[in-house]
Amino acid sequence: MLTLPTSLSRRFHTTFDGYEAAVFDNSVEYHNFTSALKQYGISFITRIVKGKRNGKKVRNFIVLLVEDAPRAA
User: Fold this and answer.
1) 54 CB contacts (<8 Å, ≥6 apart)?
2) pTM for the full model?
């Protein structure tokens, strides 16, 4: 099992469906983040939540950390 770097683990600051979650409102940030997780071999799943904020359509990309990866100190 690989260690989750601190730069990535800091993004998991909330929970969603019982998993640690990182939330992105930008698809480019989401893609860069998930590419880094794949590079480190970290298991995750993605949820896309659509809604409205201030009358505008928004979507949030939620990355759920499936495996309990050890954290870098």
Assistant:
1) none
2) 0.81
Tell me if 19 sits within 8 A of 65, measured CB to CB: yes
Q: Please answer whether residues 5 and 42 qualify as being in contact, where contact means their C-beta atoms are separated by less than 8 angstroms.
A: no
CA–CA separation, 4 and 6 (whole Å) = 7
Residue-by-residue DSSP string for 8-54: HHTT--EEETTEEEEEES-HHHHHHHHHHHHHTT--EEEEEEEEEET
Q: Are 27 and 63 in contact (CB under 8 A)?
A: no
Q: pLDDT tens across 2-37, in order?
A: 677 888 889 999 999 889 999 999 999 999 999 999
